[in-house]
Amino acid sequence: MERLLLLVGLAAGAGVVAWAIRSRLGTDAPTRPAWMVPDHVDRADLARPDTPWMVALFSSSTCLACRATWEKARQLESDEVAVQDIDAVADKGLHERYGVDAVPLLLVLGPDGTVHKSFLGEPSAADLWASVADAREAAG
Question: From start to end of 11-80, where are the E strands?
Fold first, then answer.
């Protein structure tokens, strides 16, 4: 019984010490205001710049979510919609030019390069298809 009381006392003391340290140092983790998402992309930087609509995926070959996003995005390829994978290593210059520092970043671009919709992280297929359809409908 004495050992149990001693252990409870030590645990309580350790908890008080931990609380005091956290209070002095603060418990908030460093924050980042937001990841960079461009609002416009120069269509001349991309393959098939004359295509009315573009789905641009900024990705990395080591990213599993990027692969899954690519599999969804490439299904949108048509005469009216170009789809391009922009790899962080092979296309490093484009990642730097547009300040992309998190992948997967998928952009739905209009004819003038304006970003109509963006997804940071893997979107659902339904959300991706709907975003392209909504952008095309809004443009008339």
Answer: 53-59
Expressed as residue numbers, the domain containing 111 is 43-139
- Give the separation between CA 130 and CA 140, rounded to whole angstroms: 15
Q: What string of pLDDT tens digits covers the 140 residues of the chain?
A: 777 666 666 677 777 777 767 777 665 666 666 788 999 999 999 999 999 999 999 999 999 999 999 999 999 999 999 999 999 999 999 999 999 999 999 999 999 999 999 999 999 999 999 999 998 888 87
- Give domain status of residue 86, yes or no: yes
Instruction: Write down the pTM of the prediction.
Output: 0.76
Report the domain count for the chain: 1
CATH number reported for the structural domain that contains residue 117 in this entry: 3.40.30.10
Q: Identify whether 128 is part of a domain.
A: yes
- Distance between CA atoms of residues 101 and 77, nearest Å: 25
